[in-house]
Amino acid sequence: MGTEAPPDGTTESDETTPEGRAARLRRAARAVNPAAAPRAGVRAVQRWQAFRVRQRELLDESNRLQSELWAQIHAGAPAATAPDTAPASGPAGREPSVGPAGRRGEETAGRSRQPMLWASPFSIGFTGALGVLLAWLLVQNLTRLSSVLTYLLVAVFLTLALNPLVEGLTRRGVSRPSSVFVVFMGFVTVVAVSAVTLLPGVVAQAVTLVERAPQVVEELAGSPWLVELDARYAVSERATTELDRLLTERGTWTTLFGGVLGAAGWVAGSLVGVLTSAILTLYLLATLPAVKDGAYRLVPASRRPGVVRLAEEIMRRVGGYALGQATVATINAVCSWLMMQVLGIPYAAILAVSVGLLGLIPLIGATLGAVIVALSALTASPTLALVVLVYYVIYQQLENYWIVPRIMKRTVSVPGAVTVVAVLAGGTLLGVLGALIAIPVAAGLLLVYEEVLIPRQEHL
Questions:
Q1: DSSP letter assigned to residue 97
Q2: What is the C-alpha separation between 226 and 52, in angstroms, rounded?
């Protein structure tokens, strides 16, 4: 009996070739009964094979993307898209399918488009150092421009104070340029008339005060309480010794001469500042509608009406507060001058001007003016000083409960604690000017808080 040939027609001698080995594997696979093997083991083997295939595909894709990334870095060529992201043939109107490897390729390609220079710590540090240097230069330049910014702030404040008068004339049919000219010339006229009226008296009384200084010192030295104080603590002897030492030192005269030059420079700088602020006020008052319109155009159109409404209300309150505070200070100065004329207190003009200027400062200005007048009255008579104190106590009550509510009823409404904090903060940052504008600024911030922040929080 001859040897039976294999079913596929191959012989044993053919099994040494690749085709023969493949045929032998196929025969072995047909000879095995799949039902005889455990089904769980078959599924585990299938899952393992599928996992190995996926790992192999991801590894190949990663190697390809890495090669393209290095080619982009060295040659600047854009990275190619993954094969999985290529448009696949299919029905019209359907998006091509993107596999996991394709999505990873897109993310890696997107990241590779970012400049690799930013990954360098040296570049990050150098960029940060440049930012710090630019910030320092900006602060230094702003510090040098502090006087210019102060003049601009004064001009803005005066513009907002005079603008209600201009708008009042405009509503009555007067053109804007004519209204600006009338209001500005009226303001300059009031300042000039006040200066011409008060300056001669102030200068004359200042000269009289300097001439009477030795006599006042002698009268003060002869007072009983100072004689007793001198006998107990030797005040006059110590003061004479200290004065002789200062007069014999060379640094005293240098300091005095430098102080005189500094005072002259301060006066010249003040005059330049006043003139500059006046010119800026005129220009801002004439071009205020155009300036506001240009600023409003920077706001998105969807938010522009609300911003315009808030800005107009803030400017109205600031202008009303400035006019109201100036009116209150003027009334205080006039009443103080009349009181001093009736009581015969010396240097009434100087003291009245001081009371008026200090009255512009919120909270403490009127009190400081009253203290100065009381101290001046004390040099004449303690009884006169007591009368002055009683007058200012009564006047403060009248001002707080009758004058101020009628003048300020439509301007600002700021809680007391906020007023104190605002005045302290403004005085610390900008001195007297900061104290003057602290309350209207606080009123504007409160308006933004009530009209913007609270409604936004309510809708969240």
A1: P
A2: 107
d(CA 303, CA 456): 13
Cα 174 from Cα 209, distance rounded (Å): 49
Read off the tokens for 253: 């005269």
- Of 270, 427, 441, give the one whose Cα is nearest residue 361: 427
CB of 401 closer than 8 Å to CB of 394:
no
∠ CA(410), CA(415), CA(418), 5° rounding?
A: 120
* Structure tokens given for 448: 């933004």
Closest CA to 155 of 286, 267, 266, 268: 286
Q: What is the mean pLDDT of the chain?
A: 75
Supply the DSSP string of 404-448, one letter for each residue: HHHHSTTS----HHHHHHHHHHHHHHHHHHHHHHHHHHHHHHHHH
What percentage of the chain carries pLDDT values higher than 70?
71
Pair of tokens at residue 309: 């409404």
Q: In this predicted structure, which of 67-71, 234-238, 345-349 has the lowest mean pLDDT?
A: 234-238
Cα distances (angstroms) measured from residue 459 to each of 194, 250, 447, 456: 54, 72, 18, 5
Please compute, for residue 458, the number of CA atoms within 13 A of its CA located in the half-sphere on the CB side.
7
The 8-class DSSP code of residue 2 comes to P
DSSP state of 363: T
- pLDDT tens per residue across span 57-72: 888 888 888 888 888 7
Please give the Cα distance from 5 to 2 (Å, whole number).
9
Taking the model in full, what pTM does it have? 0.56
